[in-house]
Write a structure and sequence with these properties.
With about 160 residues, this protein is mostly helical. The chain is flat.
């Protein structure tokens, strides 16, 4: 049998703590200062050229002036998620119908009041709920869904078609 005691007595290296080196820290500070100076220079140039005109008496940050100098084309227009918007409308109408039924029957809106789960973790039900007892609530939710659906159809019809050219 081999004697392990002499191996255990050998000195071992300890892993050094990983701290950012001074050179990296200095380079980071230099880069941040250079970017700040470049941004100030760009903002000054835009104000002198007249590309951006400040019409208020408040101080406007250099970052805002630089973004305004890039023009309106710089700000991306969000694309519309039609299916996601329809599902959100279904969740909203379901929530309205659930609350209306709960207020009419004088019961709490939660079906499981003793649930230990976070409400955000509950499964979302996208199917149509049964109509409320009051016809006015049903008319309102149906008109909301119909208006949104017609707007989405109009917008999708006006959207430019993507071609393979």
């Amino acid at each position: 049998k081999q004697d392990n005691t002499k191996w255990n007595n050998w000195p071992t290296k300890t892993a050094p703590k990983q701290q950012p080196s001074d050179k990296k820290r200095i380079n980071h500070k230099k880069r941040a200062a250079r970017n700040r100076r470049k941004l100030e220079k760009t903002a000054r140039r835009l104000l002198q050229d007249g590309s951006v005109v400040v019409l208020v008496e408040e101080d406007i940050p250099d970052e805002a002036i630089a973004v305004l100098g890039k023009g309106l084309g710089f700000i991306p227009t969000p694309s519309l998620d039609i299916e996601g918007t329809r599902l959100d409308m279904r969740l909203t109408t379901n929530r309205i119908l659930t609350r209306a039924k709960a207020s009419q029957s004088q019961q709490p809106a939660n079906s499981t009041p003793n649930s230990t789960f976070n409400p955000k973790l509950h499964r979302k039900y996208y199917g149509p709920k049964s109509p409320a007892l009051e016809q006015a609530i049903n008319d309102i939710t149906n008109s909301m869904a119909h208006d949104l659906d017609s707007r989405l159809r109009r917008r999708s019809a006006l959207a430019p078609k993507k071609s393979n050219l």
